[in-house]
Design a protein that fits this description.
This protein has 58 residues and is mainly beta. It has 1 helix and 4 strands; from the N terminus they run E-E-H-E-E. Its main location: cytoplasm.
């Protein structure tokens, strides 16, 4: 609903920011808690990690 959120990473590192545009580029309309995804991390100019190239797992 907000147009952004966070993805919990399996490697124990801080959550990755995800924007609705990355979700839509993956062909998804929404993400729900518990959805499993593979993704790449992109570091923005502030040093924050954003999830890109999302793909559903399973």
């Amino acid at each position: 609903m907000k147009g952004f959120g966070f993805i919990q990473r399996d490697d124990g590192q801080p959550d990755a920011f995800v924007h609705i545009s990355a979700v839509e580029r993956a062909g998804l309309s929404t993400l729900n808690e518990g959805d499993r995804l593979s993704f790449e991390l992109e570091v923005d100019r502030r040093g924050k990690h954003a999830a890109v190239n999302l793909q559903p797992i399973g």
